[in-house]
Amino acid sequence: MQSNEYIQFFDGGVTPTLENLGGKGASLVTMTSAGMPVPPGFVVTTAQFDTFMHEAGITAKINQLLADLDPEDMKQVDKISAAIREDICSRPVPQAMRELTVGAYESLMARFDAPVPVAVRSSATAEDLPDASFAGQQDTYLWLDGVKAVTEHIRQCWASLFTSRAIIYRLKNNIPNEGLSMAVVVQKMVNSRVSGVAITMDPTNGDRSKITIDSSYGVGEMVVSGQVTPDNIVLDKVTLAVVNEHLGDKHAELVPDTGAKRLVEREVDAERRGRRSLTDAELTAVAQMAKRAEKHYKCPQDIEWALDADLPDGENLLLLQSRPETVHSSKPAPQTAPQPVVSGGFFSGFSATVPKQAV
Amino acid sequence: MSLKSFPKPSELTVPAGAEGWEKIYPYYLVFQDKLKEQEDAKFWFCDSQHWPTVFKPFETIGGEFAVKCLGQYNARHLMIPNANGIEFRIHLGYLYMSPIPVPEDQIAARVPLFEQRVGHYFQNWEQLLKDWHVKVKGTIEEMETISFPKLPDMVPMEDITSGKGKDGSEKLLESYDRLIQLAYQNWQYHFEFLNLGYIAYLDFFNFCKQVFPNVPDQSIATMVQGVNMELFRPDDELKGLAKLAVELGLQAHFGNTDDVDATLGAVASAPGGDRWIAQYEGAKDPWFNFTVGNGFYGHDKYWNEHQEIPLGYIADYIRRVDEGQEIMRPVEALIAERDRIIEEYRDLLEGDNQAIFDAKRGLAATAYPYVENHNFYIEHWTMGVFWRKIRELSRMMQAEGFWTEPDDLLYLGRNEVRDALFDLVTGWGVGAKPIGPDYWPEEIERRRGIVDALKTARPAPALNTPPEIITEPFTRMLWGITTEQVQQWLGAGEEVEGGGLRGMAASPGVVEGLARVVTDADQLSEIQQGEILVATVTAPSWGPIFGKIKATVTDIGGMMSHAAIVCREYGLPAVTGTGSASTTIKTGQRLRVDGTKGTVQILDAEEDLVVTGPGAHSHSHV
């Protein structure tokens, strides 16, 4: 299915705008097109929300309800908020819109051997909600199966524009209600077979010519929280040659139990523990993705990545998060210019018995 | 950490039939009983990279001239602060080397001298290198004028009338002396720029290791390597000739290239054949002054004397062109990848370091190509002419009855040849029979037996106890003799059992394929398309083979050994300096060569105990 005004796939090749896709949606599309594949999915654009509101004919009524509201009157705010959200969730979505969303969902599912659970998240345009992280955490619905659950939660995301907290925030900051809109992200739940982090430098010494990768089985939480000892691999950033590697014990893994919609911990058998959790090709792919993230964001990055069990080899590496590496990159790089030898000469390796090694 | 030791020279078994081998070489080339204590205290590594087979007595000339002249540039010309030359000995027919350090207290005083001398060369690189070409070619030209005709029955009448007063034997003696002198001269020139190439490279190398800790050696090599080097020219000429043959529709005439005259005759009389022959003749001089060996042995074959070799390669290239294969090296891709690597490392640097990087890399990139290109002028061209002249002399003396086989001169040391010549001219001069024909045939038979017996044993990789750390820069870079490598050799016995070998990650990439073990250039024709070449060492002239194989594994050689350089040039994986690949691996075994990690796995070995992949070890290339 193609992207259109109302639905935009992450990999649909359409230039994202914040206005259409909200912050989160725009970022997912940008990352995908920059070669940093996020878990696949699509954005239900703000145009769809706008059309829905227009057809429902409730915008004027909502504006009126909000007009004289006192942000200090919590009871009244809660009451109005509940009424508006109830209104939004009970109105029918225009048939044409609904068909586009259902088509997009089915098209997403068709990429996998069997239907996979998805997450539905709100994607607000910048000023609409208190802050992105609040919005993101608040309106994320995980492990959704089937089109009905998905469309229901899209509407819940729409309704979240009118939570008490959002209403109060806009009142206190004099943000007008006119032009409020909301995009919604529908995205495959990651089914991590192997996951970990990658830092585009050597964090032990700040050497920016290396990429350091920690990798273990299952969901990355155990790596991030230090519950398992992951494989640790240092690669040369330019050639991606392995400079150093150390196999971790990787005794346990967290894997999704899709039936119970939660993660379960299990033992890793001796054979899998004894070998590196990434093949050579996978290792290279992770390193290349980390390099692309660094290039894209123009500073050293600390990324979280996963290999998704539901996706075919070569397309299964996903970028879950990329953020600036802050520990070392705030300091000047510890690159040492070779100290002039004895008389200020040029040839450093010939005047000492042991070649100097920095760091 | 205490290392195990390699055997002492006296602990190595003398192969049966080789007893008394010491006496076939000059006294100064063999370990001395009176110096046993001092010599056993030194660490000697075998240079089987350049001298993979047993020396016949005359052939020590290459080892002597090369290693002596290498040393003089460190110790006497350039005054390298921390490295003198390399001592060398022949033991059981193989060459062992021991680098000579500069005493700690003398290092500082040499620094200003070194900088002044090296500085002069780098500042005047272009002109001095131009002069070098003139000097070297002049030497070769003079060498070409030398000949060893049979002595006449009597002094010509014109020498009587002109009052020359000499019988012409002096010319024979002078010619021999001059030939040796000219070889010595070009071996001195050989190292005039070689050490400088390594110095510039190592300077850049050390800088990279400082600013990019643990940067792979391979990356540094790639950043300074030339792509269109003269050393590849002979092979490129053959490729061009193959393409032209296809273009002119001459393929049918290359069916039996072993018959050189018939092949060239058929081509010449075919339509368009004259054009091909003209290009062929143009390529021959000088590019067929190219040996399938390495220039150090009297038995090395040169293309211009064995045209069936280049014609065979051309035939093979023609077949590949007809099959639609691309035979040219991926030059553009190699240049693009090299430039990407340079750019990306450079971008990692800040401030002054970028300028330093540019300066050092620029110097290394200027100086480094010499390290490969000189090879054509000395090992191939100079030595090609040299050995041709020596064979001419040997045949002349064979005709005089000094020995039975055409190349038996090789069983005499070069100073013994001088004696034999004086014996010849004396006998001739006085009108008597020289002594040699009654002395040498028997002695040569005895020596032949010794050399053949020595050949039945492979050399030890090294002798005596290695130092804790190996720091000598040339040893590390050129021969790949590093602390880690030596430890690996010492542990090699255990590692080999499981079917895995470790060496230097010399050229990146991973492939699987069938092994072809080659210990002699004459076996090159056995190599099949897609095989993995396993050799004690490779020669640059094996170029046409590199278009056929998938990867290379050698016993000895570092990041800058020929195999490593050629493989990077051809985009093939290579693992060098494994110590024992050619004796451990059998032709036909399935191998997995990882030139990025430096491992070779024998996939169908009985028990695959050694895991060469991740997790087998936790190592750090410091």
Describe the structure.
The complex is a heterodimer of chains A (359) and B (622). Helix content of chain A is 35%, strand content 23%. Chain A has 359 residues and is α+β, with helices and mostly antiparallel strands. A 6-stranded antiparallel beta sheet of chain A has the order 9-8-7-6-12-13. In chain A, strands 1-2-5-3-4 form a 5-stranded antiparallel beta sheet. A two-stranded antiparallel sheet of chain A has the order 10-11. In chain A, strand 10 and strand 11 form a beta hairpin. The termini of chain A are far apart. Mean pLDDT of chain A is 83; it is low at 132-137 and 332-359. By secondary structure, chain B is of the alpha+beta class. Helices cover 51% and strands 9% of the residues of chain B. Chain B is built from 20 helices and 12 strands. Chain B has helices spanning 36-41, 60-77, 104-123, 125-145, 157-161, 169-211, 217-224, 233-247, 260-269, 273-287, 308-322, 331-347, 352-399, 414-430, 436-455, 473-478, 483-497, 543-546, 562-570, 581-584, and strands spanning 44-46, 83-91, 94-101, 462-463, 500-502, 504-507, 510-518, 532-535, 551-554, 574-576, 590-594, 599-602. In chain B, the strands form 2 sheets. Chain B has an 8-stranded mixed beta sheet. In chain B, strand 9 (551-554), helix 19 and strand 10 (574-576) form a beta-alpha-beta unit. Mean pLDDT of chain B is 89; it is low at 492-498 and 607-622.
In terms of topology, how is this protein built?
The complex is a heterodimer of chains A (359) and B (622).
Chain A: E1 7-9, H1 18-33, E2 41-44, H2 46-56, H3 59-67, H4 74-90, H5 95-109, E3 118-124, H6 132-138, E4 140-144, H7 146-159, H8 164-172, E5 182-188, E6 192-199, E7 210-217, H9 221-224, E8 231-236, E9 242-246, E10 252-257, E11 262-267, H10 270-274, H11 280-297, E12 301-308, E13 317-324
Antiparallel strand pairs in A: 1-2, 2-5, 3-4, 3-5, 6-7, 6-12, 7-8, 8-9, 10-11, 12-13
Chain B: H1 36-41, E1 44-46, H2 60-77, E2 83-91, E3 94-101, H3 104-123, H4 125-145, H5 157-161, H6 169-211, H7 217-224, H8 233-247, H9 260-269, H10 273-287, H11 308-322, H12 331-347, H13 352-399, H14 414-430, H15 436-455, E4 462-463, H16 473-478, H17 483-497, E5 500-502, E6 504-507, E7 510-518, E8 532-535, H18 543-546, E9 551-554, H19 562-570, E10 574-576, H20 581-584, E11 590-594, E12 599-602
Helix pairs in contact in B: 2-6, 4-6, 4-13, 6-7, 6-13, 6-14, 8-10, 8-11, 9-10
